[in-house]
Amino acid sequence: MERRGKSSRIVILIFFILFLMWSVLQFLAPLSLPHGNIDDLSGLTAVSDNKELFSDIPIPWNAVYSIGDRLCHQKAERSFFINDNQMPFCSRCTAIWLGLAIGLGVMVFYRIQLNEKFLFVVIAGLAPIGIDGIGQLFGFWESTNIMRVVTGLTIGIACGISIGIIIDEIKTIHLFKKTKSS
């Protein structure tokens, strides 16, 4: 790991803040609603299954739940409950969002080189979710919410760090082109 220029750090910091705020909103949403108001959001991914349920929820919580409705299956048995309300995303998706913020947070302070060692780490970060998913698909086991959080955090952190590296690489290419044309 090495230090980087100020402009890359600022861009990564902005992404970190956005992902952190998004993660915090997911935890605040069920806390902000009356106790036991949201109990089963189970549905399909990429479908708005619960649109009518969210129409009476105040802003911004209706937006958080609506986005969860479109991006996540929200199966109740695979989700956490806070204030006796189901969270807007399942446990794995919640952990992925949180992991993205953590990975970007690491990248605010450090620059990680894009090399073979890093690619191995990314593949190692992707492996747990793949193994868990394949094991469930073939009926070898049913994953627990704790396992979903672990695999979600692992892939989220790997992806957050990858986003930081992409930002660094874009800035490096831009500076290289700028220097070369001068």
Descriptive account of the structure:
The structure is a single chain. With 182 residues, the protein is mainly α. The chain has one domain. It has 6 helices and 2 strands. Strand 1 and strand 2 form a beta hairpin. Helix 1 runs antiparallel to helix 4. The radius of gyration is 19 Å and the shape is globular. The model has no long low-confidence stretch (mean pLDDT 90).
Keywords:
mainly alpha; 2 strands; about 180 residues; two-stranded antiparallel sheet
Biggest sheet layout: 2 strands, antiparallel
According to DSSP, the number of beta strands is 2
- Low-confidence parts: none
User: For the CA atoms, what is the radius of gyration?
Assistant: 19 Å
Mean pLDDT, all residues: 90
What is the share of helical residues? 55-70%
Q: What's the arrangement of strands in the largest beta sheet?
A: 1-2
N-to-C SSE string, H for helix and E for strand: HHHEEHHH
**C-alpha geometry:** globular
Structural class: mainly alpha
Distance linking N and C termini: 29 Å
The domain tally reads 1
**Percent of residues in beta strands:** under 5%
Number of helices: 6
